[in-house]
Amino acid sequence: MERIQSTLRLDLSAIEAALRKVQRDFAHINADLTSRRDPLGEEVLNNLIAGYAFLDRLQEADIDLFAIGNSALLLKLNCLVLCGSTDTEAQSCKPHFIETERRFYDDSNPGGVRSLMNYLADHPEPSVWRRAAGVYIQILSEPQLFFEGNHRTGTLLMNHVLLRGGKPPFILTEKNAKDYFDPSSLVKGFRKRSFRAFLDIPRMQTRLANLLQNTEDPRYLLNGSQPDAAGLSNVGRRTNL
Hints:
Blueprint: H1 12-24, H2 26-31, H3 42-61, H4 71-83, H5 94-104, H6 113-122, H7 128-140, H8 150-164, H9 177-187, H10 195-214
Helix pairs in contact: 1-3, 3-4, 3-8, 7-8, 7-10, 9-10
């Protein structure tokens, strides 16, 4: 996908403040969810914040994670979310990385990276919000893209799409948590190419896209970064990785 406007930069301090408030209020948030989630622990939170810093560096360098030749960066982001490092050779990440890489590049896997890239090429969505929601659902539905950490990595990749499309990131807050977590739990039960997915995924994509659009908040962008008004961009060719 091609970026359509000047580079947006993240206000990492504002993002961290919002996520730490969610961490403090998580017991209250969790009690209101249809499916309970694990607490937002310190290691998980720190790795997620590091993930946003990684996205910001990509923005600064004008790097599109979904461009041809950048698939290894998707693996690095997943390692960062799980292990706190983008070094896939690090001892803490290596066992996870070996299994993740195997399924990630397996062309017979309908949840692998080839399927994700072909999905993007085959679905030129009319808005950046639908495109971001579609990427998130493609990663989170079964079989998932990564061996572990699909929800957190999917959230970051969804935000990568939003930023490349000229929109602020979606940041979890107490106000939007239920509207985000509940459909996410449902998406994990969808199996790609199944009849249920054929019926339910379009509705879920619309639901998530509306959430992204309706909760858009420029406070998570640095001063001087201006969101784009159109939210439109081009989708690349169908590709073989």
